[in-house]
Amino acid sequence: MNREEISRIAHADHPIKAPLGDDSVRALLAKGLPRGDERVLDLGCGTGEWLLRALETGTGVHAEGVDVSPEALAEADEAATRRGLRQRLVLHDQDAAKFTSPQPFDLVLSVGAAHAFGGLLPTLAAAREHLAPGGSVLVGDGFWDGTPSAEAVGMLGDFDDLATTVDRVVADGWTPVHGHVSTRRELDDYEWACWGGLAGWALDHGDDPQAPEVLATAGTRRTEWLHTYRDTFGFLTLVLRRTPDRS
Ligand SMILES: C[S@@+](CC[C@H](N)C(=O)[O-])C[C@H]1O[C@@H](n2cnc3c(N)ncnc32)[C@H](O)[C@@H]1O
């Protein structure tokens, strides 16, 4: 089974592919969408769940999503149609780092996709290119909540701690106007949804020739989480606006 299929099954019970609960997503989007007529862009939109929830906040909202996964975009397309949102959504199958648009956006999202740009600050630089005057960026990325093992860094990347992460964002010319640090429960719910969901699929599809491999993958990923990064991985989502240049 390929990575995309594994990911589709693993996220079936957690369509937001990041460790945030529904209330947290709602509160973050509310901060980024104060008017109800915004143009929203998601760089690394996956199956489009952030955009679909943004579109559901008001009929005046229009959204565009960019991702390199045709499978994820096909799911976004199908879900948007099912939820009556397709006419206000444009999907782009391309590298988000190379995406250009003739019109700017009032809210630029990028959650769990910083690797596509080479880290958090390059993600913000890319988001800034698309931002309308007075607009906001909603960005989500990891941080280390304690000293990670070399294995954890090798697996997830080299993050800063929470305070240093925010300091670097502020030093880069951004002002956080809202933020959410994923709770222990959100972090655990996400991992259990992914690896428990994948294991459950394998048990429910015992006749499928791929079931043993899927069950083994679920076990490996659960073990990696519990032994390698559960105690040190944190996730921060910020709503940012540009800090006025007073010089
Ligand atoms: C962890 S998922 C997050 C999806 C979505 N933002 C969410 O929170 O539900 C990361 C996404 O980034 C996408 N991605 C990775 N590299 C990319 C690139 N260079 N350009 C666009 N998307 C990319 C992946 O295909 C995947 O859908």
Automatic annotation (TrEMBL):
Domain (Methyltransferase) ranges: 37-141
- This chain's protein is named Methyltransferase domain-containing protein
* InterPro entries the UniProt entry points to: Methyltranfer_dom, SAM-dependent_MTases_sf
User: A Gene Ontology molecular-function term?
Assistant: methyltransferase activity
Pfam families attached here?
Methyltransf_31 (PF13847)
Instruction: Please give a single GO biological process term from the UniProt record.
Output: methylation
Q: Which SUPFAM superfamilies match?
A: S-adenosyl-L-methionine-dependent methyltransferases
Keyword check for Phosphoprotein, yes or no: no
At the highest ranks, the source species' classification is:
Bacteria, Bacillati, Actinomycetota, Actinomycetes, Kitasatosporales
Q: Which UniProt keywords apply?
A: Methyltransferase, S-adenosyl-L-methionine, Transferase
